[in-house]
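Ticket reopened. Same input as before:
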Amino acid sequence: MIEPRSEVEVAEAVASAKGPLVIQGGGTRSFSDGVAGDVLSVAGLSGLTLYEPGALTLVARAGTTMAEVEETLAAEGQRLPFEPMDHRRLLGTEGEPTIGGVVAANVSGPRRIQAGACRDSLIGVRFVDGRGTILRNGGRVMKNVTGYDLVKLMAGSHGTLGVLTEVAFKVLPVAESVGMVSVEGLPATQAVAAMSRALGSPYEVTGAAHLPSGPDGEPLTMVRVEGFAASVTHRLERLTSVLAEFGPVETDRDPERVSAAWKDLRDVATFAGRAGDVWRISVKPTEGPAVADALPEAEVVFDWGGGLIWALLPEGTDARAALNGRDGHATLVRASSHAKGLPVFHPEPPAVAALSSGLRAKFDPRGVLNPGLMG
Amino acid sequence: MDMPAPDRAVLSKRDVVIRRLQAVLPRGAVIHDPFETRAYECDALTAYRCPPLAVVLPASTDEVAALLKVCHEERVPVVPRGAGTSLAGGALPTADSVIVGLARMNEVLEVDYANRYVRVQAGRTNLSVTEAVEAEGFFFAPDPSSQLACAIGGNIAMNSGGAHCLKYGVTMNNLMGVTMVLMDGSVVEIGGPHLDAAGYDLLGLVCGSEGQLGIVTEATLRILHKPEGARPVLMGFNSSEVAGQCVSDIVRAGVLPVAIEFMDRPCIHATEAFAHAGYPDCEALLIVEVEGSEAEIDEQLGLICQIARRHDPVELRESASAEESARIWLGRKSAFGAMGQMGDYMCLDGTIPVSALPMVLRRIGEMSRKFGLQVGNVFHAGDGNMHPLIIYDANKPGDLELCEQFGAEILKLCVEAGGCLTGEHGVGIEKRDLMVHQFSPADLEIQMAVKDVFDPDWLLNPAKVFPLEASRKRRAA
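Engineering reply: fixed in the latest deploy. New output:
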């Protein structure tokens, strides 16, 4: 394993690489498991380089652990807005997830529907391209249209365009209070209709999920609100009336219980330790139930108001067939040995794939960065 | 500011190009009479003008594809144009270029409230996107000052912001998908009514690429339900340091206002003389707006006013009525017009870290005296996006050049302070040659390599964004 301690050492390691490199942060997300090559770990590039709570700005080296980032922010009553998932439970991995890994995989949780994805909060990157050149894009200010936005391009590129060395974020205050309303017993189409109603209201819903089999075995539709205490009370009351037509509405204001429920959802805890392949499918929310229906063997969880389907499928089943021409994409997040023939990332239409491979050839002309990953 | 000399080979086959364009487009969609093309000689950066070879006004993605194929075959440069409101010269033509105007592409293609998006043709104006959905209580959040006129295609090209992006984000954060035509006439679909990309985030790359990667013809935009209500509070301070500290304290207290606007004394004076909004005579004025129900607004404004009082404001005026809210916003909204009364002006757009605000304002004041040109500052304080307005006299020889030098100094200062050249207007031609102050040669090279992928012949808006020297070889190839 190559373990550079600085950005310059990363550049040297890439420039002098004679063969493929497997780019790794904390190694907890295992997207690059199938890539053969020398592991280049950025875990040694650690520590915050800037944190200005009054400007809502945080800059960290890519190998900084999520634990450190989250603790530092929490001490100032702030957080990353996009609620990134911790993959360890679902994937059964060990180690410390890093902020660079979160960016490389554009990891975004339930709050994505309101606060945006990881890439929406990301305002700057430094990285080393496949030639070993140190590059920079964006910066530390939240409004910046100077030149092309390679910041967005790097988010979710899984180390195939460059090795991230430093990332900058816009952060937000932690909400003073959290609460949720829920409705039991809804079939998926009704649940999505209810969530659409809530998300189309002025009450700034920060989470909308449907568990076809909730904690007590019944379907459970949950809608979360965060903010000042009085505001959360007001919004939950209003949402209770909005959702009344779908059935009896329960309100939960217990912060620990509510947080635990959304953390389980974020980490897809319900599929942890169970046999099968895990797929993450992004679709138009109202088409979520039909896509799930097309996977009769699947156990599913709906997040993002129905637009994100987590599916546990028998090993080797291709979930992509269920999209059947609909807009959207499916990622094979946890693959068993029987699923090895299935691409992890959704195949792109030829015109888009041509642009993607063109970009990759520019950023990594020698093809040394995670070759084989992402098409 | 220089533009490349027009390609003689293109000028000499002008008639062929026009005939070929006419052959693939409906009658009346090709404008070539020099009298009529004059209307397209500039955008909102009026200091630079040049009539194009021709203007085409397509009505569909297919027509854009057909005309780009012609231009690609004839190797004619193409300049996309939304509504021509760019302050950075993003739509400035060259004499050998064809302007592709989106004015006829203003249809709403699909409205989906359940899934909270609207799909429109890219020539539709920003405000009319909201107009199409507001009967159901929805709106499109990005609100550039030019929203009455500016086109969605231009918003996407420049990744436009607005006064409310502290809470709602900029165009990028509200864009879900595009249909885009590449220079060779091929059509690509990127994103759609689902969230996030299957592979690379090409949508994020295209947004803000200033019409250099492709021509966006249709867009899927996120819509939101309007808040229950909104209300501003106005506060005046005797120093910009204190105002800056107040902004920082508000943000740290966990309140997220929808907008925090800042005006300095020269701007307050100009605005008062023009709009009589009743602003206090002070060094720095803040307008802070929050949203929610009446009770929620009361709670948030209560907290904000409590913070403001700790900073000894010379004025603290919470709006008590819709009329008073309108009056508080009146001055801010007429600031550009008010400054325009003082002469010609150049509007800059650098962004700085909020903590650098007092230092940057002080230095701008010093430069103003050095250059002998007046400057007023309007500022999206929550996100550090400055709008210094430099007053000059276009009829006075040398004044424009002096103003440009002054502007360049301010933008370099923004970069030095940890910020950037442009927060929401784009680089265009205006900041093109300053890019070397923000980016290393390698940083620029990788961006130009991106354009190589989308537009290998560098025919789309070629003389923008990158310093001419840096892009020379590619443009000449």
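Residues 360 and 413 of chain B are 7 Å apart (CA to CA). Chain B has 18 helices and 18 strands. Please confirm and we'll close it.
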